[in-house]
Design a protein that fits this description.
CATH superfamily of the largest domain: Hexapeptide repeat proteins
Distance between the termini: 73 Å
Strand content: 25-35%
Low-confidence stretches: 1-65, 69-91
Strand order of the largest sheet: 5-8-11-14-16-18-21-24
Structural class: alpha/beta
CATH architecture of the largest domain: 3 Solenoid
Number of domains: 2
Largest sheet: 8 strands, parallel
Number of helices: 5
Radius of gyration: 24 Å
Shape: globular
CATH topology of the largest domain: UDP N-Acetylglucosamine Acyltransferase, domain 1
Helix content: 10-25%
Length: 266
């Protein structure tokens, strides 16, 4: 497990990181001034635990392996500790390139790779995903296994992406679920764009071309394809392919009933 140091040349040892992880609800005074945390290689990794008393403790993995009695004592002390459970479930091989910013309360898990210049907002969860350079994620974003976000993509607030490839410069700004999809570059998926990928028996893929614009509350019922530079109308449920450059609209026409309020009051 890598150690860490503060940005702005504020050199800090491991105990500074332990202060943060042992009690995330009472962060040290220097934390708001940190712009990023840089990983540095360590000769050997150390497990970090938090006890029920909120005090941070450390146990060298090789020491525990060589001393079964010590391992049992640690296990007993940490049993039912919520923080230990989080760590145990977060065993990971995350790779972060230079100039990556990870905001507090974010979880990066599994075989996740994040390219240079990317910013991941607070309360984001990224699992077994590949994130390109200068991408923006979160806050409150869920990137699930099998996802590839290419360079300069955006996965915004309350967005969930699963087993999908999102092309360069494509934006999924807010309130969307994109599952089992291939999205081309330069596309903008409007708020509440959903890929309905499961029919109750099997998963199906959605293909969205380059420079597509979906309007708010668009549902794409897979398998379906939206061609390059196509548009969808707000509130549409798209069940058939939309040709390149076309506008797909699938909704009832609006009907206005005159004097409805007066009639209702009688």
């Amino acid at each position: 497990m890598p150690t860490a140091r503060r940005a702005r040349r504020l050199s800090a040892g491991r105990e500074a990181v332990w202060d943060v992880v042992s009690d995330p609800y009472h962060l040290p005074r220097w934390w708001p001034r940190v712009s990023r945390v840089e990983s540095v290689a360590a000769e050997r990794w150390t497990k970090v635990f938090g006890t029920r008393k909120g005090k941070s403790v450390r146990a060298d993995e090789r020491l525990l392996d060589s001393d079964p009695l010590a391992r049992r004592s640690w296990t007993q002390e940490l049993e039912e500790s919520p923080f230990e459970r989080i760590l145990r479930e977060s065993v990971t091989t995350v790779e972060l390139e230079p100039d990556v910013t990870v905001q507090p309360f974010t979880a990066l898990r599994g075989a996740t790779r994040v390219a240079a210049g990317t910013e991941i907002g607070s309360h984001a969860v990224v699992i077994d995903a590949v994130i390109g350079a200068r991408a923006t994620l979160g806050p409150f974003c869920y990137v699930r296994p099998g996802t590839v976000l290419e360079d300069e993509t955006k996965a915004g607030t309350f967005v969930e992406i699963k087993n999908s490839r999102i092309g360069a410069r494509t934006k999924v700004p807010h309130l969307s679920y994109i599952g089992d999809a291939d999205v081309g570059p330069g596309t903008n998926l409007g708020a509440s764009t959903i890929t309905a990928n499961y029919d109750g028996r099997a998963k199906h893929r959605t293909t969205i071309g380059a420079n597509v614009r979906t309007s708010v509350d668009t549902t794409l019922v897979a398998p379906v394809e939206v061609g390059d530079e196509a548009y969808t109308g707000a509130g549409s449920v798209i069940t058939d392919d939309v040709p390149p450059g076309a506008l797909g609209i699938a909704r009832e026409r609006q009907t206005n009933i005159a004097n409805y309020a007066e009639k209702r009051a009688k």
